Amino acid sequence: MTQGFLNVLKPPGMTSHDIVSAVRRMYGLKRVGHTGTLDPSAAGVLPVGLGFATRLIEYLDKDDKAYRAEITFGWASDTGDDTGNEICRKAYTMPSEEEIVKVLNSFEGDIEQLPPMYSAIKINGKKLYELARAGKEIERTPRPVRINKITLIERRDDAIVIDVDCSKGTYIRTLCIDIGEKLGIPTVLSFLLRTRAGKFTLDSAKTLEELAELKENALLQMDQVLSDIPSVQLTTTDGIAFENGRTVIISKCHVDRVRVYIGDRFVGIARVSEHGTRLVPEKVFHLSADGE
To answer: What is the spatial distance between Cα 7 and Cα 206, in angstroms, rounded to a whole number?
Structure first.
C-alpha cells in the first residue's frame, strides 16, 4: 500500500481540496488528506498524507508556519485580500522604513486575532465564508496566536513585502489589515506564499507535474516527518503487545508522547502515562519491514 507524506507546492488558483483530488487520481488512492489549508489565491507548501499517514496529520497540524506576504496600501476589501470587493480607498503618505519596522515589531509575541468573516471556521455548523457570501456578519471571538518573527523584506511606493514566522491558526490576512490600521492606512493582502509548514519547506516542495514523474520516489516516510517526537524501541514481546493495543511498561520516560519502534520498524505513536513508566497506544500501524 502506498503511504507517506508529500510536500506539495500548491499553485495559486487551486484549493487545498483540489490538490487532494489531484493526488488521489495520481496515486490511485482514496485515503488522502492535507494539513494546514491554504486559500485558493495563495501558493506554497501544502503537506499531504497518503494511506496510513493520514492518521498522523493531527500531529502536524500543530506545527508553526512561515509565510512571505505582500501588503498593498491605500485600499481595503471585504475579504481582506485583493480578490474581494473594494470597501474603501484613501490617499496616504508611505511610512518610513523605521515606522514600518516599529509597527511590525509590535506584533511579535503572543497576540489575539479576530478571525475574518471570509474563513473556514464553523459557527453553528456554518462556515464563516458561507455566511459572509450571504451578506451576514457574525460576532466572533478573538483567538490567541503567536508571531515568532516578522521581517521587512522590501518597501515600495505602494506596498511592502514581509516574512512571517508564526503559530498554527494565524490569519495572515488579518495580520496585514491590523498592520495597516496601526499605520493609519487601509491595506489588503495582495500576495501570499507559505514557505514552511513544520518540517516541510519550500525548497523541497514539488509541483503536481513533478509528483506525476516522481510518484513513490517523492514520498517521505511517515515517521520521518515526526522526528521532533522522541522515539523508543521495544522488545519483540513488548512490541507485539503494543501492536495488539495493550499498555507496555517501560523505564522512566520524561515526555508526553513517543514514536514506537520494534527494531527499525515504526509501529506507532504512544502516550506516556503513569508517571512516565507506561506506554499507552495512541496510533498503531501494522507495517511490514518494507512499509506495506
So the answer is: 6
- Could you tell me which residues come within 8 angstroms of residue 292 by beta carbon, excluding any fewer than 6 positions away? 1
pLDDT beyond 80 at 8: yes
For residues 196 and 164, the answer to whether their CB atoms sit within 8 Å is no
Q: Is 39 a catalytic residue?
A: yes
In tens, the pLDDT along 215-245 reads: 999 999 999 899 999 999 999 999 999 999 9
Domains 4-63+199-224 and 229-284 share a fold: no
The CA–CA distances, whole Å, from 172 to 89, 188, 189 equal: 21, 10, 8
Backbone angles phi, psi at 265, to 5 degrees: -90, 120
* pTM of the full structure: 0.89
Domain 65-194 indexed as CATH 1.10.10.60:
no
**C-alpha cell of 285?**
500501524
Residues 201, 66: Cα–Cα separation, whole Å = 9
- Cβ count near 107 (within 10 Å): 17
Cα-flanking dihedrals φ and ψ of residue 25, to 5°?
-65, -40
Q: Which of 39, 165, 178, 223 is catalytic?
A: 39
The three cell numbers locating residue 98 = 523605521
Nearest to 268 by CA among 231, 237, 235, 236: 231
Burial class (CB in 10 A: 0-12, 13-18, 19+), 38: buried
